[in-house]
Amino acid sequence: MQKKINYFFDDIMLLKTALVHRSYLHERDKDEDIREHNERLEFLGDAVLELIITDFLYREFGEQEGYLTNLRSALVNHNSLKIVGDNLDLPNQICISKGERDDGDGTARSSITADGVEALIGAIYLDGGYNPARDFIHTFILPLLDDIVKNKTYKDSKTKLQELSQKEAKETPTYKVISSEGKDHEKMFKSGVWIKNKKLGEGEGKSKQLAEQSAATNALENFDTIIQENLDK
Q: What's the CATH architecture for 157-231?
């Protein structure tokens, strides 16, 4: 992993911790050196990522706040971070429980990968400070920006789904929480989105808003097929 990211840690335990999902701590044969999962590093990395991306966009784009906010959201959302994580082979590097690996659905695994990228950024920041964290983000995350601008994917999924639904189905999507699990400070929400009483997608997130965005993204992937098969009936 250090070779992949071209950064070598002074405190290797920070890297190890960044690559530990909380489920792994319950494994009987886990590495005895590992006593903490990566959620605290993820919390820190999220803030560092947002600051560095904001600084870059402010300096490079002479646009209004709303446009910059949309670009930032597109760069730091779970979909973009999952792409980065997959490119770094994080799904095979993160320590998770056997049960989580066997039973977790695609949405959950995507979330673990995206969270792992944020944890990795947090670990780099703690180990080396601002500049190495900035170098990582500029090397692995900012290259996604060209396609985001070119394809206008900076519009968030809920906005795109609403525009498409109003055009094709003459109806605004409805979102509902399907379930919520975990303690108050670490809850995971699952939400679904419906159009004309047909569920088009579902997704998970650490807040209702993130879960709804994930559900909208899932619905956009299914929209063309489902709209023809069901909404015209």
A: 2-Layer Sandwich (3.30)
